Amino acid sequence: MSRRKRATPAPSRAGSEAAPPRSDAPDAGGLPTRRILRDVLLLAVVFGATVGIAELAGAANLGVSFGIGQVAFAIALTVLLIRE
Description:
By secondary structure, the protein is mostly helical.
């Protein structure tokens, strides 16, 4: 079963009232959008911090720092994709 959609019983036609909305279900654009934005922000911070640390540690030039940042970015992305 998908995390986004949970099985809900179909409303019966016998009653004219609609069933009240489920309180435990996330709203239409809330949780997944926030999680994606948080993950993208985390990846940008990891990349930027790694580039800055590489520069301060004495990397030969900015290209080397960006290369180290890419490696850290790939590791962070792998961790984010593997976790639940």
